[in-house]
Design brief:
The chain is α/β, with parallel strands linked by helices. The chain has 18 helices and twelve strands. It has two domains: about 5-190 and about 275-425, TIM Barrel (Alpha-Beta Barrel), CATH 3.20.20.70; about 200-270, no CATH class. The longest helix is centred in the last third of the chain and has 32 residues, at about 375-405.
Length: about 425
């Protein structure tokens, strides 16, 4: 499926032909059914972490409401028999304007985690942005992808030495861009997780990039500054958590039974994960340590976009982290036009948050996005059917985008402009 030409009609055809023999897709096509199937496949803690948002989740609702306000106005009697979904991004031709968002702790959704996503992305030639909070080291995922495109998402930790090490590793395993996420210098207030008292990192989940890093491993010998955080009371659950930490550390449970490294790794991660004091002038450090394109993720204000262009940043990702960080934040789609206008084509402007299907991809492109990143939907596919589930979700989104493109009277990304949309009250 690496060739996305006419993917919409081909995908429909394949599903309907399989239906003649009584076979249905591995994952539901309808969004509501996909959500239900994913929730049924995941533990309560996993579902809360993946599906939840900040506060009352009003930002998540705003993301969807923004998409609903914009309506597509089709043009007819145009020759749309041949459609070209391809784009060029940082000198690389991609078969479609779709990428996969970095999403952490995928082991909560499926045992194969990031590796299943990497294989699915490679099969469809959709760039995968490796998560800083991955469950599988970036090198392992890269090895499974061959020459397929991949990027790396970076959280700027309190250790600049660790930041430099992550970037060096990303370059070494063939990543072609660094996506610095700026909207998660602290974890947002997430009631679903808090009600369960569950944070996966405390169990050693989602920290594989750290435990596979030589700089981080060397730091384990140094006592972590816990900032006076209380120790958890000693209970059976405390013991179970300690065993989980050992099982999730490289080598597995049996090898780590007598080792203090797993607990030290969790403590070190919790104290070094991110840096709220990060400022604009410190981006020079990142530029000094990589020649790869640098994108800033989490930009919603046009003044920040303007500053990024002035500083020579290579790209932006308009995102509110899928509504997971600030309750009551502006919808990403509402922020997109102003950011795209001030950037004025000088650098690529990518988009995420609230994307649920191919029509959403069309709308984001029409409002100024260069490319669009898909998040929760592929995780739900992963939870339901592993690698195959991810492939089917990606295939469905691309198919709907292709059909929407043609039915709207367009034959390529270049023809998708604001004129194709109308805003409702």
């Amino acid at each position: 499926m690496s060739d996305h030409a006419d993917i919409g009609r081909k995908r429909q055809r394949d599903i309907y032909i399989a239906g003649v023999a009584g076979h249905v897709p591995a994952v539901p096509v309808a969004w509501s059914k996909l959500e239900e199937a994913a929730q049924a496949a995941m533990s309560p803690e996993a579902w809360a972490y993946v599906a939840g948002g900040a506060g009352r989740e009003s930002t998540m609702a705003a993301n969807r409401a923004a998409f609903e306000r914009w309506r597509i106005v089709p043009r007819v009697l145009r020759d749309v028999e041949q459609r070209d979904l391809s784009i060029e991004l940082f000198g690389q031709k991609l078969p479609s304007p779709l990428l996969l968002c970095p999403i952490g702790v995928l082991e909560m959704a499926h045992r194969e985690a990031d590796l299943a996503v990497a294989k699915a992305a490679a099969a469809l030639r959709v760039p995968y942005i490796f998560s800083n909070q991955a469950s599988v080291p970036m090198e392992t995922c890269a090895a499974a992808m061959g020459d397929a495109p991949r990027w790396f998402q970076l959280y700027w930790s309190r250790s600049n030495e660790l930041v430099a090490s992550f970037v060096k590793r990303a370059e070494g395993c063939g990543c072609s861009a660094i996506v610095l996420t700026l909207d998660t210098t602290m974890l947002g207030w997430r009631p679903r997780d808090l009600d369960l008292g569950a944070l996966p990192f405390m169990r050693g989940q989602g920290i594989a990039q750290y435990t596979s890093d030589p700089v981080f491993r060397a730091q384990l010998a140094q006592p972590a500054d816990t900032g006076g955080a209380p120790k958890p009371p000693f209970t059976l659950q405390t013991i179970a958590t300690a065993l989980e930490q050992k099982a999730n550390f490289p080598g597995g449970l049996l090898k780590n039974l007598g080792s203090g490294d797993p607990r030290a790794a969790v403590q070190r991660f919790m104290t070094t994960y991110s840096r709220p004091s990060l400022q604009w002038d410190e981006l020079k450090f990142l530029r000094q340590h990589t020649k790869l394109p640098i994108l800033l993720k989490g930009v919603l204000h046009p003044a920040d976009a303007k500053k990024a262009v002035e500083l020579g940043i290579d790209g932006l990702v308009v995102s509110n982290h899928g509504g997971r960080q600030i309750d009551g934040a502006i919808a990403s789609l509402d922020a997109l036009p102003a950011v795209a206008e001030i950037v004025n084509g000088k650098i690529p402007v990518l988009f995420d948050s609230g994307v649920r299907g191919g029509a959403d991809v069309f709308k984001a492109l029409a409002l100024g996005a260069t490319a669009v990143c898909l998040g929760r939907p592929y995780v739900y596919g992963l939870a339901v059917a592993g690698q195959r589930g991810v492939e089917e979700v990606i295939g469905n989104v691309l198919a709907e985008f292709d059909l929407t493109l043609g039915l709207a009277g367009c034959t390529s990304r270049r023809e998708v402009t604001r004129r194709a949309l109308q805003i409702t009250a």
